[in-house]
Amino acid sequence: MPTQKKTTRPTPAISSHSLLTDSMTASFRRDVSNLSVTLGCLPTTGAYLLPPLLKAFGNAHPEIEVILREESSPKLTLMLRESEVDLAIMDEI
């Protein structure tokens, strides 16, 4: 029998603070030995929208390190596929 190649789909866009927090926490829980989550986003999102959300997440989960990667949407898509980021906030591509 031929083997099927497993494909992964990017996570749908995040539209609220609680969904972002839930997504980041879920990403962390996949590997409990790694207390970090890598979040990809567009530069504008990282500069203007994320600071209050990341502060709230850090207060709620001080044990989890958040690593932020700012890139373009096409690059973030590739990073998701290659597991270089756990989740991404980006424009549709």
Question: What would your notes on this structure say?
Answer:
There is one protein chain. The protein is an alpha/beta fold. It has one domain: D-Maltodextrin-Binding Protein, domain 2 (3-Layer(aba) Sandwich). The chain has three helices and three strands, in the order αβαβαβ. It is globular. The N and C termini lie far apart (35 Å).
Mean pLDDT: 77
The CATH homologous superfamily corresponds to Periplasmic binding protein-like II
> What spatial order of strands do you see in the largest sheet?
2-1-3
**Topology-level CATH name:** D-Maltodextrin-Binding Protein, domain 2
Q: How many domain units? A: 1
- In helices, the fraction of residues equals 40-55%
Number of helices: 3
Number of strands: 3
Return the CATH architecture.
Answer: 3-Layer(aba) Sandwich
Order of helices and strands: HEHEHE
Structural classification: alpha/beta
Strand content: 15-25%
The first-to-last residue Cα distance is 35 Å
Q: What is the 3D form?
A: globular
> Under the CATH scheme, which class?
Alpha Beta
Which residues sit in consecutive blocks of at least 5 with pLDDT less than 50? 1-15
Largest sheet: 3 strands, parallel
Radius of gyration: 14 Å
